[in-house]
Amino acid sequence: MASPSSHTICIRGITHEGKSFRPSDWAERLAGVMSRFRPGEVRLGSHLSYSPWCVPTTIDGVKCVLVHSDLRAHEPMAWDFVIHFARDNELQLIPAGLPPDEPAA
Predict the structure, then answer these.
(1) Which residue among 28, 35, 53, 69 sits deepest, i.e. has the most Cβ atoms within 10 Å of its Cβ?
(2) CATH assignment of 8-38+46-95, given 3.30.230.10, 3.30.70.2340, 3.40.50.2300, 3.40.50.40?
(3) Rounded Cα gap, residues 37 and 41, in angstroms
């Protein structure tokens, strides 16, 4: 499991209604789409690994994606895409350091 920092937003695979988000591999798919957004130059074969700014993980048995705020500085449209994905699918957005049952401000 990746450990979130204070500059990370956690997108939890639980809707606001408390249902698990489907498909079950949504976190890996989202992180795969974001794999090209990374520090430095895009290198040959880098699409085969996740970006350090958008990492799928499991926290307390729930699929999540950890999104680092450096993504916003590097590519604001990619940041907006990830955040809108979460909002459009009514997924929980939690700033790092908050327990899952506390709402994000």
Answers:
(1) 53
(2) 3.30.70.2340
(3) 9
